[in-house]
Amino acid sequence: MESSELGGLVRSWRERMTPASAGLPEGGRRRAIGLRREELAALAGISPDYLTRLEQGRATSPSAQVVQSLARALRLSDAERDLLHRLAGHATPGLSVVPTRISASVQRLLDRLAHTPVAVYDATGTLLVANAPYNALMGDTTAWHGIARTALWRNLVGTGSRVVHTPEEQADLIAMQVADLRMTSSRYPTDRSLRRLIAQLKAESPLFVELWDSGAAPDQRELGRSKTILHPAVGPIDLDCDSLVVAQDDLRIMVYTAEPGTPDAEKLALAIVLGTQTLSDVLAND
Predict the structure, then answer these.
(1) 216, 194, 195, 211: which is closest to 156 by C-alpha?
(2) What is the pTM of this model?
(3) What is the top-level taxon of the source organism (predicted)?
(4) Tens digit of pLDDT for each residue in 254-271?
């Protein structure tokens, strides 16, 4: 297939998406139809320049990893994802690849929770999508690219998150995430992206190597549903964090809520207002 057909499809799929469907604030006036190139590039973890060249048919050989990231960011159906892979000259993922697609039913659930902080992770702990309230609470996740979107990497190597943990809680969390990743690896042993993730974690974190080689099984103990989020504008917020598993799609949905009528509920509402206003201002000035 000609590269122009691949680029044209990517552009048409980008233009049919709305900021809300991608977990982004609408912002002010928008000249672009659908998502801006910069927005899709950020969601897919690629450069806007590369996306421009791809849509214009000047980038002709996107890697399977880039194609998979674009399929995830564009919310493609299984058939559309497979078509994108074939046009790029790659084999279709099949059942041996960690699922990253947000199904229509899960998207409807996210739409119903549009005013609640919600994030969706795949089985590797990699962030697939976060809505605007989540970004307002936890920081702008569209600035996370590549491996930085994986929670385990952020906890081991990166800057962590706004969730407050004692050293013991942090150690338990990391050990659980490593054990979960090992279980995921056993379910998808031929997933090349997963193998690359594990290799990169081994290269960058001696603690990961130690925990991985220990062979410990996931600890089924509750780490605690109550989380304290240290927000830079409103201070600490005590919230309930519930993790919902979508077994058929092997996804994890994290939802943060506060008991209505409490000071924490008021602080959460303020954090969301402040954060969504800030993101809207940034997008309006783009």
Answers:
(1) 211
(2) 0.76
(3) Bacteria
(4) 999 999 999 999 999 999
